[in-house]
Design brief:
56% of the residues lie in helices and 4% in strands. α1 runs antiparallel to α2. By secondary structure, it is mainly α.
């Protein structure tokens, strides 16, 4: 049986799964933005500041989601992997390969 058969549509995720996914995505976004800053050759101060601000915003949003999760569901987050969910857009990576 194919692994694709085990992929759940996003509409079927429980509330705690959706919030855990949001936490994971915000963390990934902040990481990608910081990797962009470090991988750019001679970025302008304006670009560096913009990307760093966006990364900080993702970190702040992740903390809000995490606080919300803890208040409603406790300390243990479910492990949600993007390849287990149907209906999500794939993010680009900063990996040049």
């Amino acid at each position: 049986m194919s692994l694709i058969a085990f992929r759940r549509p996003i509409s079927r995720l429980a509330d705690q799964d959706v919030i855990a996914l949001a936490i994971s995505l915000e963390e990934g976004n902040a990481h990608i933005l910081r990797m962009l800053i470090s991988n750019l050759q001679n970025p302008s101060q304006e670009i560096s500041t913009y990307l760093a601000t966006r990364a900080d915003q993702s970190d702040a949003q992740r903390r809000l989601w995490l606080d919300h999760y803890r208040a409603h569901f406790g300390e243990v987050l479910p492990e949600i992997k993007l390849d287990q969910i149907r209906g999500l857009t794939h993010h680009m990576t900063t990996d040049p390969a």
